[in-house]
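seq:
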Amino acid sequence: MANMIVFGTQWGDEGKGKIVDILTEDADIIVRYQGGNNAGHTLVTEGKKFILHLIPSGILHSSKTCLIGNGVVLDPEVFCAEIDKLKDSGISISPERLAISKKTHIIMSYHKEIDQARETAKSGKDKIGTTGRGIGPCYEDKMARMGIRGGDLQDLDLVREKINKALVEKNVLLEKLYNQKPLDPENVFDRIRPFASRLVPFMTDVSRKIQEAGEKNQTVLFEGAQGVQLDIDHGTYPYVTSSNTVTGNASAGSGYYYNMKRVIGVVKAYTTRVGQGPFPTEQDNESGTHMQNMGAEFGSTTGRKRRCGWLDLAVLRESARLCGPTEIALTKLDVLSGLETIKVCTGYIYQERTVEYPPQEENAMAGVSPVYENFPGWSEDISGVKTWADLPENARRYVRLIEDYLKIKVSIISVGPDRDQTIRMG
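struct:
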């Protein structure tokens, strides 16, 4: 059972979807173990673009089974819309190919109302930059032991009862704190009811399915969302997501103890971030504009512009320490083509001393100054390159620099969005 896990090493948007899509060829089952539809995976296959928010990227392979674990928070409306869109594109969807844990928590309409009202009420630096999709409030209800889980949808009377109890508190918040109209419990129930009937056939014991895969010596690929620097504990708090994005959460979020043979950290050849929060290597200049335009850096979930900056090795060291990658999948190397000089952050100056890891005090990352090493760029378009030997010398040197600093081998190099625009190393 040569299990694998793919995780993002930065602030998300590293190109995990493409890497999962490629590695799915070597797996039997693909498991999504955390996050919600605040994450989007963009896949391009034979020129056709797919954007997935909840369904694992492996769904594009007709012979694979995809599972959504208990660590995910699932919006029924988004899930059903995603299924319909895939079916319209000729992708076969059935409970045999796609299943959801009965323990997965369900995002309700009041979660989104609270999320949006809360963010609207904030101003300036207090804004988190949430997508407003109810992710955080759903996780809050999970921890408060008042959430609605996938298995509950089999009992609509129980769902109605839980909605009534939840709105006792939610309506006080909406009306008294955020000056919003209170929600009618029956309207909330009527909104979820048609989706419940569609979701129930997909509900199963995901833990058992993974266990069965192990008994058959099949390979399971665990797929994370967002990136390590958005982890609720280890990211740039409070500008983080509401779940643990580190690889250690794969067990808790899937319900099965894993034994990983390969741990693949996805590294974008530069760095991006969406929303608020510190970003030491951000380039609000011509270089940043080059990365944004060449890399099409707009959020697949929100459409927001991504902030762009140089590669940050301090962030990558932290991700390696937290997640233990055995290899790196380097993405969007082609975006750096045309830059005369490329900078790489090798550490920070923090409180008048040099540090190699992000400081852990809250908001400390906003007070660091990056230490850069300048690196010669390359002018050639590499989007059509198929082999390591055909990359420009300076592009190869850039890859080796990353390997040397992190002491981790690069096994995959992506030079474009399509599945075929990939160099496999060794």
